[in-house]
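Is this the right way to post C-alpha cells for a design question? Let me know if I should format differently. Anyway, here goes:
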C-alpha cells in the first residue's frame, strides 16, 4: 500500500494550485490502492489546515527561519530529512520553477528515481508515471523500480479534489537544518510589477504570435484575455522581437502550460511552441492560413484574419454574463 507525500509549495502565504491538484490525484489513487496521502509544508503553515479538505490524510510541517526565502540546498535538506524519517514511497513536487530547481537534487540526495513533468499517475505494485517526451510528440509510461521516487507534476494536469475531505492531523517534523548554512544564499527576490494571472496556473490562456504584425497589436490579446479572465501568453517569435517579456513565452524554452482552454492567435504551431501547450485540455486556433500546423493540434479552428475574429470574439463574449 503506497504512501504518497506531496510537497505543498506556497506563494504569498497560499498554497499553489498545483499542490492541491497533486494532493487530489494522489488521494484518488490511494483510494483504490490503499495507503495514505501526506502533505508536507515547509515554513508558513497557514495552508496546513486546508490540506485535509484537499484530500490529504496527514499533514507534516517544519518550521525554521531558513524557510523565509527559497533556496535549493535548504529545501533539499529538509525534504530529504522528511523522506528519510517517514519513508513515503513517492514524493510529488509541482513542476514549477522551484520544483524543477530542487527535485533532481533531492532525488540524487535520496538515491531515488526522478521523473519529471508527469501528467499521469498510476500504481500496479509499483508506480507508473506518464510524461510527454520529444517536445510533446508522444508519451512515455515510466515504471519506477527504485524504493522511492521524486516526481515533478505539470500544473493543471489533474483536477482538484471533489471528495469532501475532512480536517487532517498536523504533525511537526525536524527538517534537520541545525547548524546548516547553504553555499549560496538568495539575497533579494524581485516580484514582477505586472499584476497578471500567472501563466502556469491559469485555466484559460490567450496567446499571440507573429500574425499580430506589430507590438501594439498585442493589446488585442490582452483585451481578449481580460474579457475571458485569462492569462496572456506569447510565441517566442514575438518575445524575441521584444514585443512582450519572456515571462509570457509558452513553449520549449518558455513555460509549459496545461490550461482548460488555450486560444492560439496568429501562431503557426511550431513544434517548440506545441511542446509548451499541447497538453491543454481544449485548443482553439485562429490563423488565416488553413494549412498552418497549429490546426493539427487544435480541437477547434477558425481559419480567418485575426484582426476580424478577435474583436468579434471579444464583443460576443462581453454580451455573455
Ligand atoms: C531551440 C528552439 C527553441 C524554441 N522555443 C520556442 C518556444 O519556447 N516557444 C515558441 O513559441 N517558439 C519557440 N521556438 C521558435 C519556433 O520554432 C517558431 O519560430 C515560433 O514559435 C514561431 O512563432 P509564431 O508562430 O508566432 O510565428 P510564425 O511562425 O511566423 O507564425 C505566424 C502565424 O501567424 C499567421 N498569421 C499571419 N497574419 C495573420 C492574420 N492576420 N490573422 C491570422 N493569422 C495570421 C500566419 O499564417 C502564421 O501561421 C524555438 C525555436 C528553437 C530553434
Amino acid at each position: 500500500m503506497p504512501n504518497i507525500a506531496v510537497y505543498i509549495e506556497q506563494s504569498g502565504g497560499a498554497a499553489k494550485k498545483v499542490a492541491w491538484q497533486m494532493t487530489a490525484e494522489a488521494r484518488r489513487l490511494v483510494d483504490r490502492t490503499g495507503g495514505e496521502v501526506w502533505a508536507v509544508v515547509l515554513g508558513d503553515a497557514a495552508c496546513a489546515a486546508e490540506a485535509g479538505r484537499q484530500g490529504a490524510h496527514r499533514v507534516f510541517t517544519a518550521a525554521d527561519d531558513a524557510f523565509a526565502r527559497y533556496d535549493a540546498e535548504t529545501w533539499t535538506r529538509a525534504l530529504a530529512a522528511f523522506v528519510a524519517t517517514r519513508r513515503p514511497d513517492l514524493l510529488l513536487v509541482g513542476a514549477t520553477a522551484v520544483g524543477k530547481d530542487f527535485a533532481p537534487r533531492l532525488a540524487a540526495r535520496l538515491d531515488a528515481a526522478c521523473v519529471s513533468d508527469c501528467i499521469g499517475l498510476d500504481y500496479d505494485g509499483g508506480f507508473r508515471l506518464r510524461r510527454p517526451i520529444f517536445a510533446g510528440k508522444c508519451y512515455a509510461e515510466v515504471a519506477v523500480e527504485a524504493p522511492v521516487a521524486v516526481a515533478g507534476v505539470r500544473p493543471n494536469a489533474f483536477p482538484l479534489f471533489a471528495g469532501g475531505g475532512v480536517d487532517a492531523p498536523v504533525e511537526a517534523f525536524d527538517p534537520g537544518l541545525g547548524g546548516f548554512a547553504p553555499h549560496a544564499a538568495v539575497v533579494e527576490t524581485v516580484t514582477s510589477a505586472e499584476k497578471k494571472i500567472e501563466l502556469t496556473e491559469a485555466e484559460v490562456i490567450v496567446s499571440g504570435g507573429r500574425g499580430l504584425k506589430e507590438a501594439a497589436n498585442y493589446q488585442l490579446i490582452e483585451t481578449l484575455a481580460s474579457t475571458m479572465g485569462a492569462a496572456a501568453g506569447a510565441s517566442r517569435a514575438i518575445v524575441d522581437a521584444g514585443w512582450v517579456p519572456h515571462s509570457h513565452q509558452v513553449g520549449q524554452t518558455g513555460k509549459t502550460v496545461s490550461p482548460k482552454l488555450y486560444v492560439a492567435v496568429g501562431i503557426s504551431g511550431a513544434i517548440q511552441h506545441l511542446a509548451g501547450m499541447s497538453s491543454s485540455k481544449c485548443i482553439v486556433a485562429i490563423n488565416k492560413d488553413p494549412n498552418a500546423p497549429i490546426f493539427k493540434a487544435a480541437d477547434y479552428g477558425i481559419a480567418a484574419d485575426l484582426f476580424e475574429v478577435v474583436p468579434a470574439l471579444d464583443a460576443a463574449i462581453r454580451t455573455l454574463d
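Format looks fine. Someone answered above. Worth noting: The pocket of flavin-adenine dinucleotide is lined by residues 209-211, 235-238, 249-254, 266-268, 270, 272-273, 276, 286-289, 292, 305-307 (CB under 6 Å). The chain has a mean pLDDT of 95.
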